[in-house]
Specification:
heterotrimer; A mainly alpha; B mainly alpha; C mainly alpha; A: mainly alpha; Fumarate Reductase Cytochrome B subunit; two-stranded antiparallel sheet; 2 strands; C: mainly alpha
Chain lengths: ~325, ~550, ~190
């Protein structure tokens, strides 16, 4: 159900961009106005969400400890899975954000009937990593289009990405990997009953959207060739605040741009905010040193307690009878 | 056989008619799965709202008129008070990594026991009332109305979560269902929807100092009962003190150890150890509970119960505090106590009077875990131990959820156990240390009326025990948790008969060679020690 | 060809079918999960798949069925704590008949093994009676555990407070001597 809604939504977006540009000729709307609004929504929305989380208090220091804590010098502690100081936390967060440490924990191997069997869960880690890194590299590669003079590091990334030099123009590995990974992530939502059961429209929509972006990009590069110089002109116009959307560039470019705009605008309102949230997760970004350093709760409430005096008043006779010392005789 | 499904199997799966979305499945509240509702008198004793007797099986839970508003306001307040809650409500991507990590799901297959769905039960309400997408798109955006069915469903499943944090370990964003459950239960408590197995002990603890409601003279007589047993067993007279001012150390342990087997044998182990060391320590009848069932009610309640430990330490003028073996007790002591009721600047950084070791890792709270304390003694060869007295035992160790995933206390208990017994076998790797499986009865769910729930929730743990039982002949499951000592015996009785349960310091007590003791012929359970004079046969038949 | 040889040859498809039939007794989402048979991370799936293989071997071996009680016990012990009524909890034994018929009926007809099939089904009936017994034992055990917990708690207090004493079985000891606690009235 959710899947169909999401699919129709993305298909609708594509049709909308196609009709808007091809039939109505709304190049300025799709090539300038919407991207600006989307970017604005993204920046403000993202900042606002992170700000809101930031204003929520962190009353307790409750890291999920994933290894031996620091105790005696003679007990080997796990400094990164159970960090006891800021440095350890930085490493733990880096492992989490850059290498998906917790998902990797999911991988396991078992011996069954004498054979080593790998749990299926490592695929999630692998494809998740592939998905995010492909996305990142593609994103960086696109800076070529934003800048008049292409910096050297982007050229290096491009040449690595196009290592095999296959096809004309040569195929970027990350293009293939992104599509493969997104397809995997989609397939497991459909094929694994457990995952299908927990999936909602909000899970399929970004996948379809990103697939749409990737496929429209690939079409543009390899199949429905667009005027790349013209496209770059449009984009540089956008980033230099002198938008000059051109009708020459081809509708597929505008579809691509519209989907990207949608992704940007949608981002702050969606689960994609995990990108920001992961840094703020108190079970990961705090050191396990609560017995060493006091953590202060900003709203530490005054609570009604049962004092010793009240206790002794109630039980004084019984205490005296069995020789337990009391304050008041 | 276990591997990725074959293509043919995948094909089969897609042919299965899609199940109804979880939101459309009306939850059937089944007997055997829930605990009795909290009684009016206990709610009132704790000054909790809506104190009345309510029956779970009855249609009417006697909620206040404005219950919905209360819950929604409660959610709003907690979004501001807990970044955990706020972030966890927003960022789940439903990747499913947590789905098969929950012992309740593994044992039951009930999809609403997947941590992700358990969170969605509340998240769907959050979306409806607190997010734009949820308000506009409703069900399509995974949002739903808060109605009485929804409330009851949340109640049912939030008291089927033992707050073990195993899901949190595997979550790429560290989303912790324990935290969501804690906050969900806080919300339910705004309406007086607690269970009596939590509320009763909390009420006892508030007034009388401990969960069991033992009054001061009863505590003393309970301990004296152990002393008389110990005198029979060892020939040594032990004289502990209670509420003694000027002692160096205050000792606090879960009251379960004073009251029910096999926890009582653990308490006997403590008494023997302290006597042998000549430790200058005292028990307290006022702070006579290490555990904290308030923690399963609300953060405020946890603080109110926890208050007594520091207050008593201050009143008695001790230098530092030593804590007994308990799981959630140590989660609270380790991660919450200093924040709740600290700073403990009236105490000194704990230093072992026997070895001189300074416990730097506890320099803030000034509270040391007894297993740390004992491990340090053993490392420094301060104890005369005879591990052969435990030779009839083949031992494995169950890591408590709380000390594993809320502390990282993994090696010290193993060190202590291996020092006092010769046959130790760990369970399979995926089921121990930080990946340990819950006993199925944590977070106040160890009542009797929900035995079915406890048995299925404990199955993954029991299954791993059965493995070492069959492979190595393991006959003793050790632990450092009072709830384990209460709940694992029936779990073993059902799934792995022939495996007994013991606290770590029971083994220490057995192996400890005390100055001036008579020759031991029985262990702390008054069972003959194999191979010793007077013992009948040396069969490891426990 | 005898029926047992036929069944041995067809063991794998029969077990697959039987396993699938058992899974169909669970809600469909759970069923798909239990399909994974990992020992420790999916104990239910593992217990069922391992158990039915052992039971199957027992049924066709012709050995005394009592020998196979432990395998039956493993599965039923799990189902006894999972939302099943008594009949549904043990119905999986009968599913073996369905599985055998589904996989082998044509061959059985061709080889005229109907009498053997009747014998086999009788054995399965016998097995199912045993299953009922085991189910009842498991449920009784559950109620025992509940009752014991309640009883032990109460008894403990009574003993500690001196209200109840046991007769010592060794001479020379006076009953209650080891309980040096004075009876108190304020027992909680």
């Amino acid at each position: 159900m959710g899947m169909y809604v999401a699919f129709l939504a993305v298909a609708g977006l594509i049709v909308l961009a196609f009709l808007g540009v091809q039939a109505a000729g709304l190049h300025f709307l799709f090539g300038a106005l919407i991207p600006y609004i989307a970017f604005f929504l993204f920046v403000i929305g993202f900042a606002y969400r992170v700000f809101l989380w930031g204003t929520s208090a962190v009353p307790f220091r409750i890291p999920t400890t994933a290894g031996q804590m620091q105790s005696f010098p003679w007990v080997k502690s796990n400094k990164f899975d159970n960090p006891s100081n800021g440095f350890g936390v930085v490493i733990r967060m880096a492992l989490e954000v850059l290498l998906f440490r917790s998902l990797f924990r999911n991988t396991k191997s078992e011996i069954h009937d004498g054979r080593l069997i790998h749990g299926s869960d490592k695929w999630l880690w692998l494809f998740g990593l592939m998905f995010h890194y492909s996305f990142l590299i593609i994103f960086i590669r696109h800076f070529r289009l934003f800048l008049e003079n292409v910096p050297g590091f982007i050229l290096i990334i491009e040449s690595l990405d196009g290592f095999f030099q296959a096809g004309v123009p040569f195929v970027y590995l990350t293009d293939l990997m992104l599509v493969a990974a997104a397809t995997f992530l989609f397939a497991r939502r459909v094929l694994l009953p457990q995952i299908r059961y927990i999936s909602m429209a909000a899970d399929y929509f970004p996948l379809f959207l990103i697939l749409g972006i990737a496929i429209s990009g690939i079409l543009m590069r390899y199949f429905i060739r667009v005027d790349i110089t013209g496209a770059k002109q449009v984009i540089i116009g956008l980033v230099s605040f002198q938008p000059a959307p051109s009708a020459e560039v081809g509708v597929i470019f505008y579809i691509h741009l519209f989907l990207v705009s949608t992704l940007l605008a949608y981002f702050p309102f969606s689960k994609l905010m995990h990108f920001g949230g992961v840094f703020l997760s108190p079970t990961r970004n705090l050191a396990n040193n609560s017995r060493m350093v006091r953590h202060v709760n900003p709203w530490n409430p005054d609570v009604h307690v049962h004092t010793y005096a009240e206790y002794e008043d109630e039980f004084r006779d019984k205490m005296k009878k069995v020789g337990i010392p009391v304050e008041k005789e | 056989m276990a591997k990725l499904p074959k293509p043919s199997e995948l094909a089969k799966i897609s042919l299965t008619p899609p199940a109804k979305p979880w939101m459309d499945v009306v939850t059937d509240i089944r007997q055997g799965m829930y605990c009795h509702g909290a009684k009016a008198k206990n709610l009132a004793a704790l000054e909790l709202p809506n104190a009345r007797d309510f029956k779970v099986a009855e249609e009417d839970w006697q909620l206040p008129e404005d219950w919905k508003e209360t819950v929604l306001n409660g959610i709003k307040e907690r979004l501001e008070k807990f970044r955990t809650f706020h972030v966890f409500m927003d960022i789940c991507v439903r990747c499913g990594a947590c789905a098969d990590k929950c012992h309740f799901f593994l044992g039951s297959g009930d999809p609403k026991n997947m941590p992700v769905i358990r969170a969605e039960l509340l998240r769907s309400v959050y979306r409806k009332y607190f997010t734009t997408a949820g308000k506009v798109f409703g069900k399509t955006a995974g949002a739903r109305e808060l109605d009485i069915q929804t409330l009851k469903e949340i109640w049912y499943y939030y008291f089927q979560c033992t707050e073990c944090r195993r899901c949190s370990l595997f979550c790429p964003y560290g989303i912790d269902q324990a935290e969501i459950t804690i906050i969900g239960r806080e919300l339910l408590n705004l309406l007086g929807l607690n269970i009596d197995w939590i509320c009763g002990p909390a009420a006892n603890c508030y007034r009388k100092g401990n969960h069991l409601g033992l009054e001061p003279h009863t505590i003393k007589s309970s301990v004296e009962f152990f002393l008389s047993d110990l005198e029979d067993i060892t020939g040594i007279t032990i004289e502990p003190t209670f509420n003694r001012k000027g002692a160096e150390i205050l000792f606090v342990t879960p009251s379960g150890d004073l009251f029910a087997d096999p926890g009582t044998y653990t308490a006997m182990g403590y008494l023997m150890l302290f006597h042998e060391l000549g430790l200058d320590y005292t028990w307290s009848t006022y702070a006579s509970e290490g555990g904290n069932f308030g923690f399963f009610t609300s953060m405020d309640m946890a603080k109110r119960l926890n208050y007594k430990i520091y207050a008593e330490a201050k009143r008695l003028g001790v230098k530092w505090i030593l804590g007994g073996e308990c799981g959630h007790m140590w989660r609270v002591l380790h991660q919450y106590m200093d924040t709740f009721n600290g700073p403990a600047d009236f105490l000194e950084v704990p230093k072992s009077p026997i070895t001189g070791t300074v416990f730097d890792s506890a320099k803030g709270t000034k509270m040391v875990h007894i297993v740390e304390f004992t491990a340090d003694l053993m490392k420094n060869n301060k104890l005369n131990l005879d591990p052969t007295r435990n030779d009839h035992l083949k031992v494995t160790y169950h890591d408590s959820c709380n000390t594993s995933r809320g502390m990282g206390f993994l090696e010290e208990p193993r060190y202590v156990i291996k020092s006092v017994c010769n046959h130790f076998y760990d369970m399979p790797e995926d089921t121990i240390r930080e990946k340990t499986f819950c006993c199925g009865s944590g977070s106040g769910l160890n009542a009797s009326e929900n035995m079915e729930l406890r048995m299925r929730g404990g199955f993954p743990r029991a299954n791993a025990v059965r493995h070492v039982h069959e492979k190595h002949g393991v006959n003793l499951l050790t632990n450092i948790c009072a709830i384990d000592r209460a709940s694992l015996p029936p779990l073993m009785d059902y799934w792995v008969p022939g495996v007994k349960v013991a606290g770590t310091h029971e083994l220490v007590g057995n192996a400890l060679v005390m100055k001036g003791e008579k020759e031991r012929t029985v262990d702390l359970r008054n069972e003959p020690l194999p191979g010793k004079a007077g013992a009948e046969g040396g069969e490891a038949d426990v | 060809m005898s029926l047992s040889r036929l069944l041995t040859a067809q063991k794998s498809p029969i077990l697959d079918k039987w396993f699938a039939l058992i899974l169909s007794t669970y809600p469909s989402d759970a069923a798909q999960f239990f399909r994974k048979k990992s020992t420790f991370t999916n104990p239910v799936g593992h217990t069922i798949s391992q158990g039915i293989e052992d039971i199957f071997d027992g049924v066709i071996s012709g050995a005394a069925l009592e020998q196979y009680r432990p395998f039956l016990d493993n599965i039923i012990r799990v189902r006894a704590v999972q939302d099943f009524t008594a009949s549904k909890a043990v119905a999986f034994v009968f599913h073996l008949k369905t599985a055998v018929r589904a996989v082998c009926l044509k061959k059985i007809a061709a080889e005229r093994l109907h009498d053997d099939l009747l014998d086999l089904e009788l054995r399965i009936d016998e097995l199912s009676l045993m299953a009922f017994d085991i189910f009842m034992q498991c449920r009784e055990k559950l109620y025992d555990l509940r009752a014991n917990e309640l009883r032990d708690r109460t008894l403990w207090i009574l003993k500690r407070s001196g209200y109840v004493t046991e007769i010592e079985d060794e001479p020379g000891e006076i009953p209650g001597e080891r309980i040096n606690v004075k009876p108190t009235k304020e027992v909680n």
